[in-house]
Amino acid sequence: NQTILLKKRPIGKPAQTDFEFVKDDADLSVKQGELLLETLYVSVDPYLRGRMNDAKSYAPPFELNQPIKSGIVAKVIASEHPNFKEGDYVSGMLDWKTRQISNGEGLFKVDKNKAPLSAYLGILGMTGLTAYLGLTQIGKPKSGEILIVSGAAGAVGSVVGQIGKILGLNVIGIAGSDEKVAMLTDKFGFDHAINYNTTTDMKSAIAKAAPNGVDIYFDNVGGPISDAVLFNINKFARMIICGAISVYNNTEIPKSISVQPFLVKNSAMMQGFIVGNYVDKFPEAMNHLTTWLTEGKLTYTETVVEGFENIPQAFIDLFDGKNKGKMIVKI
Ligand code: NDP
């Protein structure tokens, strides 16, 4: 049995040396009220970077020399727990371990006949919920409006754009490669897509894609891309600040333009979003996501990396844009 510990707090971009693989000697015998889990799929997510810093945030920092945790789908190998039986599949926040004992807290059963198991870490998991709830709760979309999404080819962004289309919006995506922008229009039905790595003047490129301005901005990246969007917002625009991956590895406070004049001039709203604040809306969101998925209105893509030993690299690769859709590690 193996586990991955946080060995050092990353400085700048995370590196392999920040992680340590160790043999886990924990007792795996199952006592009353417990279950033994075997890890099948591990979600690696940009937000884990924040938990690797020793800083106050909405989730407590990971402790040094302790296992890292993330969303995991696991198989129940043995159970002495009344709610779970051997052979069940579960999803929850679990340790980066090949096998582990759980008391069942925070685990929910997932059905592999309804969707592939990895989907419960993406479209039918945290990132799908984030896309739906961020867009609807803060974005308050109205048919015919213009939505722009940064980090558009990733797990959250690709779902945001598709939900935007379902709700009748005009959708523009921003992503980091020609292959990704082609995927946005061809596979996910976005109206326009911009490659920020090959575009020298993002402000003008956005103005060209959205000649009538931007009503809703779903922001996954922050930094200069978001600055360029600000120049194009309309009166009463809503900006959902979901993430800021472009600055997660910064070692200095980022230099951004001052947002206040843009907000005042346009009576616009900018609001931070944390999916965990909307637990009461999860059933509604899951209902929509599942229905749209079954009806074929929503689709998704995954980048699946194989092997427990590749979890840290898959995580690091998020910061180099190596994923399309949800980054998953299959054990
Ligand atoms: P993604 O699947 O989008 O993966 C990360 C992507 O970010 C990469 O593929 C890359 O795509 C892009 N990226 C990396 N570095 C940069 C950069 N410097 N500038 C611009 N883009 C960059 O991850 P998720 O969908 O899981 O997460 C997206 C965002 O949403 C993150 O900021 C995350 O923290 C946030 N989030 C927030 C939640 C909340 O409750 N607030 C919940 C879940 C996620 P590219 O090739 O296009 O650069």
TrEMBL record:
Q: Which CDD domains match?
A: PGDH
Output the Gene Ontology terms for molecular function.
oxidoreductase activity, acting on the CH-CH group of donors, NAD or NADP as acceptor
Membrane-crossing segments per the record = 117-135
Q: Which UniProt keywords apply?
A: Membrane, Oxidoreductase, Transmembrane, Transmembrane helix
Output the InterPro entries linked to this UniProt entry.
ADH-like_C, ADH_N_2, ER, GroES-like_sf, MDR_fam, NAD(P)-bd_dom_sf
Q: Where does the secretion signal sit in this chain? A: none
Q: Per the record's keyword annotation, is Oxidoreductase included, yes or no? A: yes
Give coiled-coil spans as residue ranges.
none
The answer to whether keyword rRNA-binding applies is no
Pfam families associated with the record = ADH_N_2, ADH_zinc_N
Gene3D superfamilies per the UniProt record, alphabetical:
Medium-chain alcohol dehydrogenases, catalytic domain, NAD(P)-binding Rossmann-like Domain
Q: Which residues form the Enoyl reductase (ER) domain?
A: 16-329
Q: What is this protein called?
A: Enoyl reductase (ER) domain-containing protein
- Lineage per the UniProt record: Bacteria, Pseudomonadati, Bacteroidota, Flavobacteriia, Flavobacteriales
